[in-house]
Amino acid sequence: MSRNDEVADRFEEFADRLEATGVEYKPQSYRRAAENIRAHPGAIESLAAEGQDAVEGIEGVGDALSSKVVEYVETGEIEELEELRAELPVDMAALTRVEGVGPKTVGTLYDELGVEDLDDLEAAAEAERIREVKGFGAKTEENVLSGIEFARQASQRSLLGDARPVGEDLRRYIVGSEAVAECELAGSLRRWRETIGDVDLLVASEDPEPVIERFVDWERAERVIESGTTKASLRANGVRVDLRVVVPEEFGGALQYFTGSRDHNIGFRNRAIDRDLKVNEYGVFDVSELGSDGSSDVSDGVSEVEDIEAGQRVGERVAGETESGVYEAVGLPWVPPELREDSGELAAAADGDLPDLLDESEVRGDLHTHTDASDGKATIEEMVAGAAEFGHDYLAITDHASGPGVVADTGVEDDDLLDHSEAIHEVGESADIDVFAGVEANIDAEGGVSVRDDVLERLDIVVASPHSGLDGDGTQRIIAAIEHPEVDIVGHPTGRYLNQRAGLELDFEAVAEAAATNGVALEVNANPRRLDLSGGAVGTAIEAGATVVIDTDAHRPASYDLVRYGVHTARRGWAEADDVLNARDVEGLRAFLAE
Ligand code: DGT
Ligand code: CA
Ligand code: CA
Ligand code: ZN
């Protein structure tokens, strides 16, 4: 997460807290400033260093807000926000994650019932005390009770899109130490899981002390949780980061171990045991000379932990310096981290059947993007130029049609879509890349598509997405949209928001079969709030013969680079370039659209 995002997050919290205490108008200006700071292409810390005037160059950031930006960048805190936090000591982020609970409700429930966190909220709902508060009823209690588990889980895990930049920034900072021989991200972050419990960072060094010192000195650390001789933990941007320092000859062993997943590692170790080898975080050891030592009880995680606590380096070391050496010692090719979820990857590796995974560089275009004709923040020209600069060969502009679930008044009316399409083609004619004009139509509750057929027919590309009524089983609804003759892509098929709402339940196999039959691509929406389809669903879709497409749903050019989150999500579903529509060249794309 960039510092822009960090400042924007603080402003959004500011807005929530103001709203909770009943302040009017001001919250909107904080939210608007937050949005513009997030979208600002330059680094906010450089502007802050130039002074308040420079910060005020960002639209919507006036005198009062620019001083808070400077204060935050200089001190890591905003005093007024700290005061608001003290005044209303609630876990705003967690509470507002419960569907139907907004900042205003949080403020009222704190005033009336002293609700500070999810446990308090649950207790109040169970005791039927919420219905006694003016403006609330039994329905609110019901919503709270059905939404609280989701919110609780969500509170414990960060979005990949928030955690990954923390890990990457920290890694760049840590390798600045001369004592660091190697440094890699490990854990779920290296596997690109959609949510992250904590960030794991691994360093190879002969001299851990200066590495630990540099780590705990990171200017963006909100708090150092612990600091030892070879391990330390800190919190940054709300995420816990665990650092471990190991000697270089054990780096590969440690990287394999701490990348996980736990289930992958258990399978891997069992395979090693069959070959009289012992695998632990220190490397691979030949224990064939040691008789029964330790090798009979390593098949479950518990005794494994005991092994490691005993610090066992038994037998003769046969691998440990590199991770590929560790796999090789057990008779396997290196397994890409995204596949390490115990979903058949070890058998595939043993049989030489690992997929040739899609690479970030193989994506040639973006087929779901917006401009300021709907709710985007940039013009057609800016979006096209941005795509060319990003390195894409083609771009589809698919502004929202008007309809339910679309921000009020931002959708393009049917009668205006063809004019818009003409304007897009006009820009396309003088561009270095191929530009397609389309629409993002809504899939209604019955699976109908919200734009007239005679309009859809004349567009280059039609994305249809669910935007409303996003609960319950949506299988028939999505299949109906897939069967619509003009639909090319189903956008964010479940409509989920990670950590916020689960979205539609879908029988992915049935959806994928319909998509394959009808020549419709299923989207992996790369926005880190969505990652929809998920990696698991991509796996099912590909298995059923469907084509997937990786789109950013960009509302501004800066969002094109979110595509990497979609690529790695697709890799978690074992996607190869052949499975992915926008890994095709423009001729291949045209052929698909013409089907
Ligand atoms: P997270 O942080 O919840 O998103 O998921 P991970 O996978 O990053 O898990 P974490 O941070 O607890 O540990 C990192 C890796 O270290 C994990 O994927 C596998 C390995 N590991 C940690 N503790 C154990 C254990 O008790 N047994 C086994 N077999 N592996 C472990
Ligand atoms: Ca972790
Ligand atoms: Ca960890
Ligand atoms: Zn969209």
From TrEMBL:
Cofactor(s) the record lists: Mg(2+)
Q: What is its EC number?
A: 2.7.7.7, 4.2.99.18
User: Which GO BP terms, alphabetically?
Assistant: DNA repair
Do you know which InterPro entries this protein is assigned to? DNA-dir_DNA_pol_X, DNA_pol_lamdba_lyase_dom_sf, DNA_Pol_thumb_sf, DNA_pol_X_beta-like, HHH_MUS81, Hlx-hairpin-Hlx_DNA-bd_motif, NT_sf, PHP_dom
Q: Which UniProt keywords apply?
A: DNA damage, DNA repair, DNA replication, DNA synthesis, DNA-directed DNA polymerase, Methylation, Nucleotidyltransferase, Sodium, Transferase, Ubl conjugation
Q: Which GO terms describe its molecular function?
A: class I DNA-(apurinic or apyrimidinic site) endonuclease activity; DNA binding; DNA-directed DNA polymerase activity; phosphoric ester hydrolase activity; zinc ion binding
Reaction(s) catalysed by this chain, per the record, are: a 5'-end 2'-deoxyribose-2'-deoxyribonucleotide-DNA = (2E,4S)-4-hydroxypenten-2-al-5-phosphate + a 5'-end 5'-phospho-2'-deoxyribonucleoside-DNA + H(+); DNA(n) + a 2'-deoxyribonucleoside 5'-triphosphate = DNA(n+1) + diphosphate; 2'-deoxyribonucleotide-(2'-deoxyribose 5'-phosphate)-2'-deoxyribonucleotide-DNA = a 3'-end 2'-deoxyribonucleotide-(2,3-dehydro-2,3-deoxyribose 5'-phosphate)-DNA + a 5'-end 5'-phospho-2'-deoxyribonucleoside-DNA + H(+)
A single Pfam family it belongs to is PHP
The UniProt record lists the DNA-directed DNA polymerase X domain at 1-341
One Gene Ontology term, aspect cellular component: cytosol
Task: Tell me which residues make up the Helix-hairpin-helix DNA-binding motif class domain.
Answer: 53-72, 93-112, 128-147
Describe the location of the Polymerase/histidinol phosphatase N-terminal domain by residue ranges: 365-445
Localization: Cytoplasm
Q: Which domain of life is it from?
A: Archaea
Explain the purpose of this protein.
Repair polymerase that plays a key role in base-excision repair. During this process, the damaged base is excised by specific DNA glycosylases, the DNA backbone is nicked at the abasic site by an apurinic/apyrimidic (AP) endonuclease, and POLB removes 5'-deoxyribose-phosphate from the preincised AP site acting as a 5'-deoxyribose-phosphate lyase (5'-dRP lyase); through its DNA polymerase activity, it adds one nucleotide to the 3' end of the arising single-nucleotide gap.
- Entry protein name: DNA polymerase beta
User: What's the source species for this entry?
Assistant: Halococcus hamelinensis 100A6
